[in-house]
Amino acid sequence: MDAASKRILLIGAGALLAVLAASFSLYWFYEGRVSAESELPKIGTLPSFSWTAADGTTVSSETLRGKVWFGYFFFSTCPGVCIPMTQEVKRMQSAVRDIPNACVVGITCDPEVDTPEVLAKYGKSHELDPTLVHLVRDEYESVQRFAVKTLHLGLEKASDEERKKGADKVYHSVRFFLIDAKGCLRGYYNGLEADETQKLLRDMARLAKSGSKESG
């Protein structure tokens, strides 16, 4: 092979390597960008808490550690948004059951009425699995502080004047909130929108999968 042919061969090989290098660079850039964009934000870490469940057991930051869960606010005598929210939780049960180490926590914002016995009856009447969906209670002030200060969600008792005009007993957010296995808040989802709750289920599964990889 003469010198000219060698030069042409080397130039061609160099060009091919340059194209391959550029392709791999674009690939890793794209993959990295997709991974970063699809990663759920870490909004904040929950403080320690301890609630009483419908069966009288304790549901706390310690008992939920290692689990991926979503929570929501409701009360048993709520005539409005709580009903479709609870129906949505019922619909989601089978999907949550298929996610490893996952559960649901419903927090009443009317603990004066919602005793453990009332919560148990409410869960049964709505066909909620008590081993999967934990209906819990605490003092109202503690629940409101958790909603407003920790989660930045609205929760407030209606005034007597508002009640006379037909308002619900307590105003509360309709958002479901997602918590990872380390107790970190990862997202909010409208509990009245099916596409939002489907996204919540997908995000729960992703967190459970990533958590199992970390523990493995």
What is the strand and helix layout of this fold?
Elements: H1 3-38, E1 44-45, E2 50-53, E3 58-60, E4 68-74, H2 82-97, E5 102-108, H3 116-125, E6 133-137, H4 140-150, E7 155-157, H5 160-164, E8 170-172, E9 175-179, E10 184-190, H6 194-215
Parallel strand pairs: 4-5, 5-6
Antiparallel strand pairs: 1-10, 2-3, 2-6, 4-9, 7-8, 9-10
Structure description:
- The chain has helices at about 5-40, 80-95, 115-125, 140-150, 160-165, 195-215, and strands at about 45, 50-55, 60, 70-75, 100-110, 135, 155, 170, 175-180, 185-190.
- With about 220 residues, the chain is an alpha+beta fold.
- It folds into two domains: about 1-40; about 45-215, 3-Layer(aba) Sandwich (Glutaredoxin), CATH 3.40.30.10.
- The strands form two sheets. An eight-stranded mixed β-sheet has the order 1-10-9-4-5-6-2-3, sandwiched between helices. Strands 7-8 form a two-stranded antiparallel sheet.
- Strand 9 (about 175-180) and strand 10 form a beta hairpin.
Helical run tally: 6
What's the Cα radius of gyration? 25 Å
The name CATH uses for the topology of the largest domain is Glutaredoxin
Indicate the mean pLDDT: 85
Please report the total strand number as a whole number. 10
Widest sheet: strand order? 1-10-9-4-5-6-2-3
